[in-house]
UniProtKB/TrEMBL annotation:
One Pfam family it belongs to: Glyoxalase
Xref: InterPro entries: Glyas_Bleomycin-R_OHBP_Dase, Glyas_Fos-R_dOase_dom, VOC_core
Organism: Devosia geojensis
Protein's name in the database: VOC domain-containing protein
Domain VOC: 8-128
Gene3D superfamilies: 3.30.720.110, 3.30.720.120
C-alpha cells in the first residue's frame, strides 16, 4: 500500500450567491470568525476545547470553479453538533431564522432541528442524546 499524504484540514465550501450574508449567518448563529475575507470567498473557523472547526463560503460562479460546478450548493445538509440545542434553537428562532423541521428528540440518539441558511442550505443543529433502547434492539444492536 502506498503511503498517503497527511490530511491537515477537511471542511465544506458552500457555493452561494451572497458570500457576505452567508458568512454573517454562520458568524451570528454559530460563532465562526473570518480568517480570510474577500468578496468572493470567506474562510471561517471556530475553536472549541482545542478543536478547530472550519468552513468556507464561496461565490458559486467564481472563475476558479470548473464550469460544470458553477451553481449554488443544493442537496447538502450541514450538521452542527452543539452542547445545548435547545438554547441555539431559541436564539435562532428569536432571530427569525427559517425553521424547516421543529426541535425534536429522535429514537436514534439526537435532539435536533433543521433550519435554512440564507441560501436555503439545510443546517441540522444537533445535541446527542441516549438512544431509545427499544429502537436499538429493533436495529439488532
Amino acid at each position: 500500500m502506498k503511503a498517503q499524504s497527511q490530511i491537515t484540514a477537511h471542511y465544506p465550501v458552500l457555493l452561494v450567491e451572497n458570500v457576505g450574508e452567508t458568512a454573517a449567518f454562520y458568524e451570528t448563529h454559530f460563532g465562526f470568525t473570518r480568517q480570510f475575507d474577500a468578496d468572493w470567498y470567506v474562510h471561517m473557523a471556530r475553536e472549541d476545547d482545542g478543536k478547530t472547526h472550519q468552513m468556507a463560503i464561496m461565490r458559486f460562479d467564481h472563475d476558479t470553479i470548473p464550469e460544470p460546478g458553477r451553481r449554488p450548493t443544493q442537496g447538502l445538509i450541514v450538521n452542527v453538533e452543539v452542547s445545548d440545542v435547545d438554547a441555539v434553537h431559541a436564539r435562532m428562532q428569536a432571530a427569525g431564522v427559517t425553521m424547516l423541521q421543529p426541535l425534536r428528540s429522535e429514537k436514534f440518539g439526537q435532539r435536533h432541528f433543521i433550519a435554512a441558511d440564507p441560501n436555503d442550505v439545510l443546517v441540522d443543529v444537533i445535541t446527542p442524546i441516549p438512544f431509545d433502547p427499544e429502537w436499538l434492539a429493533g436495529q439488532g444492536m
